[in-house]
Amino acid sequence: MELALSLGDAPKPFTFLDKTPKAVSNKDLGFxxxxxxxxxxxxxxxxxSREGDGRREVIRDEGGERRVSSxxxxxxxxxxxxxxxxxxxxxxxxxxxxxxxxVSEPGSSDEPGRSGLNVNRFAAAATATEEADDGAALSxxxxxxxxxxxxxxxxxxxxxxxxxxxxxxxACSRASxxxxxxxxxxxxxxxxxxxxxxxxSFKEHSTLNPKQKLxxxxxxxxxxxxxxVWFQNRRARTKLKQTEVDCExxxxxxxxxxxxxxxxxxxxQELRALKTxxxxxxxxxxxxxxxxxSCERVATTTTTTTxxxxxxxxxxxxxxxxxxALSLSKARLYPFPQVQPHMHPxxxxxxxAS
DNA sequence: ACGTTCAGTTGATTTACATCA
DNA sequence: GATGATGTAAATCAACTGAAC
Length: 354
Known about the structure:
Elements: E1 2-4, H1 26-29, E2 47-51, E3 56-60, H2 119-130, H3 142-153, H4 161-180, H5 192-204, H6 210-220, H7 224-277, H8 299-313, H9 319-333, H10 345-353
Antiparallel strand pairs: 1-3, 2-3
The chain binds a DNA duplex through helix 7.
C-alpha cells in the first residue's frame, strides 16, 4: 500500500503506478501449500517511510514495493499547483513579483467585460495614503477598511454602489468598535477578494520568500506578518485535509487487506483439508523419489510445491481467477506428475565438467 | 544569532439551530 | 402556524507561542 502525497510540489506521477499489479509471490503471502509446513513466514512487516515535505509515504514489505489494492492512491488537489478548473477561470489576480502580470487599466481593456483587479492601481492608492504609516496602520483594525477597499477593485463583484456603501459603513463600524478596546486581540476577517488573491498566490508558491511576502502584503494592504500567518495557516489546512484523505484511504486499504487475509486463510484451510483427506497421494513409492544431494529436495515434491505456489501466486487475482487456480492446484495433486530426475544446477555443472 | 516553518493553542467571529414570546 | 428576537454550541479562521531546524 502506498501513499503518495504532494503538498509542496507539483503532483508527480506515482512511481508505483508504473508497476503493473504483479502476482504476489508466495513468499510475500507466507503461503505454502507444498508439504504441510503451512507456516508460511508472514512477511507483513511493513515499514513506513516518510519523506519530509515531499510527503511521499511508502509502505513496503521485504519484497520491495508492491500494491495491495487496486484502488489508486488518493491524492488531493490541495494546491499549490492544482490546475484551476476551466469552468472556473481564475480571477484576474496578479502577483506582485511577476513583473509581466500587470493588469490592464479598465479603460484600456482589450477584453470586454473584464474590469480586472487592478492591484497596482489599488496598491498605489493605498501606498499614497498609508505608506507613511509604515505598514502598521495597514492592518487590523484598519484591515477591515482595507478589505473594503479591495472590494472596489475586484472584478465580477456584481455589487451595486449601495452594497459597497453598506460594506463601507460596516467596515467603519467594526473599525471604530475595535478602536474602543485596543487591548484585545483583533479578529480580522480577510475579505473574499483578499483571500482569493492569497489563494492564487498559494497556488504559485506555498511558501513565500521575504520579497514575495512584502510585495503581497503591499498589494493586499496587509501587514507582511498577516500574509505570513495566512500562508502558515493555509499550509496547515492543506496538511490537515490531506491527512483526512490519507486516513480514509488507509481505512479502505485495511478493509481490503482484511478481506484478502480472510480469503487466503480460507483457501489455505481448504488445501490443508484436501491434503489430509487424500494422504495416499503423498505416499510415493520409494523408487520414484529422487533426492537432490545438494539441496535435499525431492524432485516430485518440488514439482508439487511449484504448482502449489502458483496457486498462491495467483492469490491477488480476482476471486474467479483464484477459484480457477485453486481447482487447478487441486487437480494437479491427484494425477501425480511423472517423476523426473531432479538435477541440481550445481550437479549439472559438475557432470558437464567431468 | 537570526529567520523561517510547524504544531498546538487562543480567541473573535460566523453559522446553525432551538426556544420563546 | 408564521415571524422575529434571543441564546447557545459548533465551526471557522486570524493570530499567537514555543520548539525545531
